[in-house]
Design a protein that fits this description.
Length: about 260
């Protein structure tokens, strides 16, 4: 892999991991166009780690708040003020468990081997985003239930499919569940933290094949590109969601899906 290819892959990962257009779908498409063939899975995971860092930094306040409540509970020093945070942690864990089970099942289907599967799923993602413009905002964190964890866990599991945006489907699901825009966005990335961390731990065994296939300097360039572009993408996404323009991404996905179905 050349430095140019590494930069392109890092840029695509950083931008599309947060923007609701499917990072896995775009990476698969770009690899196909560049003729890269199969790349060790850990390369994908390390690019996701770059975006995970972005999530932790951007949403550090709520992450720290949840960790403080968790450690207070472990130390048996929690009180009523920690109740909402502890409940949210359980909801996130429920979503994570369901995502893991569903994601494992989908991964065994090997649907990501060809870009042809991506384009019709781009249209599905476009439809999911389109209907969020009618979503009603009513619920804050205190209103979330374990049912929200189940439903968003299923949504995030489906987001494993290339062409289905993880951020797109989970934020949309939150909006369909009448979460406020800010909560839907923040919660979507909260449940991504254990999902990405789990993927890293499961695929760490591919590290040796990664070293053989890709040099460390090339990997570092791709990682930093994903990190910087990820910050920019998430900053822009949060503002678009807050302004109620989340569904605008449908206008990008529809022609992309149609053109892909025609020419691929």
């Amino acid at each position: 892999m050349s430095y140019i290819q590494a930069i392109v892959l890092g840029l695509i990962q950083g931008l599309t991991e947060f923007l609701p257009v499917s990072s896995s779908g775009h990476l698969l498409m770009v690899r196909h166009l560049m003729g890269l063939g199969e790349i060790p899975l850990l390369f994908d995971v390390l690019l996701h780690v770059a975006t995970l860092i972005v999530v932790l930094v951007m949403f550090r306040k709520i992450v720290i708040r949840l960790l403080v409540s968790l450690f207070r509970w472990i130390g048996r020093k929690s009180d009523e003020s920690d109740a909402e945070n502890l409940k949210l942690i359980v909801i996130v864990l429920i979503a994570t468990f369901i995502t893991g089970v569903l994601g494992l099942f989908i991964s065994k289907m090997n649907v990501g081997e060809t870009p042809k599967i991506v384009f019709p799923l781009y249209l599905v993602t476009a439809a999911i985003l389109w209907f969020t413009k009618k979503a009603k905002e009513e619920r804050e964190y205190k209103d979330l239930t374990f049912k929200d964890g189940i439903i968003t866990g299923i949504a995030q599991g489906i987001g494993v499919l290339p062409g289905i945006s993880r951020s797109g489907i989970t934020i949309s699901t939150g909006l369909y569940r009448k979460m406020s825009r800010d909560v839907a966005a923040e919660y979507s990335f909260l449940i991504s933290i254990p999902a990405i961390t789990g993927a890293l731990l499961l695929d760490i065994k591919d590290g040796f094949s990664l070293i053989e296939a890709i040099s460390f300097p090339v990997l570092a360039v791709s990682f930093m590109t994903a990190l910087v572009s990820g910050f920019l993408a998430l900053w822009m996404l949060v503002r678009l969601i807050h302004s109620g323009k989340f569904w605008y991404f449908s206008f990008y996905l529809v022609p992309l899906g149609i053109l892909g179905l025609i020419f691929f």
